[in-house]
Amino acid sequence: MERHFVLSTGAMMPSVGLATWQLDPAVVGDAVYAAVKAGYRHIDCAAHYGNEKKVGLGLQKLFKEGVVKRQDLFITSKIWCDHHVQEDVPEALQQSLDDLQLDYLDLYLIHWPFKLKKGTGLSNPENYVTPDIPATWEAMEKLYDVGKARAIGVSNFSSKKLSDLLAIARVRPAVNQVECHPLWQQAKLHSFCQLTGVHLSAHAPLGSDGTAWGSCRVLEEPAIVAIAERFRKSPAQVALRWNIQMGHSVLPETETEERIRENLGVYDWCMADDLVANFYMIRQARLIEARSLSIHIALTGQSRSSGTGKFRGNTTQAPSVDRS
After folding, report:
1. Which residues are catalytic?
2. Secondary structure in 3-state letters for 12-61
3. CA neighbours closer than 13 Å in the CB half-sphere of residue 79
């Protein structure tokens, strides 16, 4: 049941993958090894995570032991914001391939729709420069043409930014990877992706509690807890199952073997429409902390005048008509 989603390229993308974001390089190789042994076939990586070399060691161990072959896995990586200049794009991909010890990626994404000066970080506003997504995308298309990236896409793109890209793309983005979970359901983006044939892949599908992006206590949401008790599943399994039933692949992040196995427990059961309807009533709120405000400003051009240190986005009830 929904073990894979078919991308616009025809590729089969596993519905559950292991996110390597925030996994310490000291443990990420073991987490990748444990995940693939448990049945995962999608590993989600990024240059900016700073752990791709260790992911590569975990992959090579799996290949050498005969647990899987390269063609059995779906590997994603992402280009960071300081490599958006056209001539830097193939360099960035090659670095990820070298670190991962691979010849190609199954999916290569633009990590964020903003641009930094090469070699600079997020903290200094002077490091931000005007993005040129069409130029970056043209370089991504060339990587697709030569087979180094078998599918290309984006991450953290709004409906507007995705629409702008679709209007000029020769090779359409196959995926938009964004934060999506029952407390941040991405109603408008979900509908737009379905309409345009862009697969929505959910990072942080169990919420963003304890991260720079905010505090969303998905696993404590009463509606989710009640469904978990009814099905004798964990709240995490319910939250993941909701995303999959919405047509989204999910990328939970954990280094714990027990949770790695638990997060695969989403295939042998299904929520009926009346239970799914309960999710539409969950209050929607996303909280962006001060240390990620620089990204918020870069993406929206907005800041806040009060000194509370937090920017709170719109808080609304999820509209049932969008069913997202």
Report:
1. 49
2. EEECECEECCCCCHHHHHHHHHHHHHHCCCEEECCHHHCCHHHHHHHHHH
3. 34
Extended strands (E) in the chain: 4-6, 12-14, 18-19, 42-44, 74-79, 107-110, 115-116, 128-129, 152-155, 175-179, 199-203, 249-251, 283-284, 287-289, 310-312, 316-317
Digitized pLDDT (tens) for each residue of the chain, 324 residues in all: 679 999 999 999 999 999 999 999 999 999 999 999 999 999 999 999 999 999 999 999 999 999 999 999 999 999 999 999 999 999 999 999 999 999 999 999 999 999 999 999 999 999 999 999 999 999 999 999 999 999 999 999 999 999 999 999 999 999 999 999 999 999 999 999 999 999 999 999 998 765 544 556 899 999 999 999 999 999 999 999 999 999 999 999 999 999 999 999 999 999 999 999 999 999 987 644 333 544 544 444 443 333 333 333 333 333 322 222
Start-to-end CA distance of the chain, whole Å, equals 20
- Give the containing element (helix H, strand E) for 190: helix 187-196
Angle made by CA atoms 173, 57, 201, in degrees to the nearest 5:
25
Does 48 count as an annotated binding residue?
no
User: At which residue do the structure tokens 């000291």 appear?
Assistant: 26
